[in-house]
């Protein structure tokens, strides 16, 4: 299983040499999202090529190709002599297939806006209409009238 990270440049190893039948191949990668069935094609940069394994670099940033959405993909690797072909039907054959998990990477940078309030002291304001009169009984002995821009205290 291969693991790549979205919005990053990810490296992944494969064992392609043992099944390759042409000399000096270019490898075409096909990723198919398991859920959406969308297909994406890559000609990644080959970092390492020896008898044991091949390591590739996948540019999944804005300048490369974006795989979407995150989750499970099926992959197929085709061998070919062309360095530009993105059509698997024009390749020299399938070399490997398997599963790939695309992890959610860091979010793209978003511009941050800082707001400065005129209430930096955390003051609380209560606005009362002059037409509204509310009377409450407090401790059974005193009543208070709110809403007429003054308070009235007295015995009940």
How is this structure best described in words?
With 156 residues, the protein is mostly beta strands. The protein folds into 2 domains: 2-103, Immunoglobulins (Immunoglobulin-like); 128-156, no CATH class. The protein is built from no helices and 10 strands. The strands form 3 sheets. It has a 5-stranded mixed beta sheet with strand order 1-8-7-3-4, with no helix packed on it. Strands 2-6-5 form a 3-stranded antiparallel beta sheet, with no helix packed on it. The chain has a two-stranded antiparallel sheet with strand order 9-10. Strand 9 and strand 10 form a beta hairpin. The protein is elongated and about 90 Å long. The protein starts with a strand and ends in a 10-residue tail after the last strand. Mean pLDDT is 81; it is low at 147-156.
Structure, briefly:
It is built from no helices and 10 strands. It has 156 residues and is mostly beta strands.
